[in-house]
Amino acid sequence: MIFALAKLSSVIPGFNERVQTEADLFGIAETEKITVAFDDMPTLKGFSCRTIEGDKERDYIFLDYRLRGTELVYIGFHELFHYFLHVPRGKKKPSVNFYTLARPSMEDAEADAGALLCLYPATEIESLPYRMIYTDLFERMLMRKRILIYRRFGV
Predict the structure, then answer these.
(1) What is the span of the domain harbouring residue 127?
(2) Is 13 helix (H, G, I), strand (E, B) or coil?
(3) Scanning 11, 22, 33, 116, which has the fewest C-beta atoms within 10 Å of its C-beta?
């Protein structure tokens, strides 16, 4: 996990130092030539994939069009981190990763941790217990996960 987070800090400006925004997500995707698309996905929040046509690789992040605010940024960064951490570089190999609410794999846990550090960087940790009072259930769950990462790994 620590290796994965160190890798992310080398490619995301201000990673775990400032709150990342929707603009950051789309800017990084554009820099990396990843197409972000929205679609109707009633049973899925998002997924990322790489397609290969001939000798051309194309990377995509698909998000449910109903996502807004914190949920959009969290799931968008989760999928972006699958790209950074789990898509083979320099190999003509297709790849796909799905964000579901099922029990996460190690790859999902790494992508989740990266997304949580984007939403709640180290500078925000002390304020999270107080902010939980004013948030919805989804964001409260994210804040709890972020605090657990801080306690377990010190980041």
Answers:
(1) 2-153
(2) coil
(3) 33
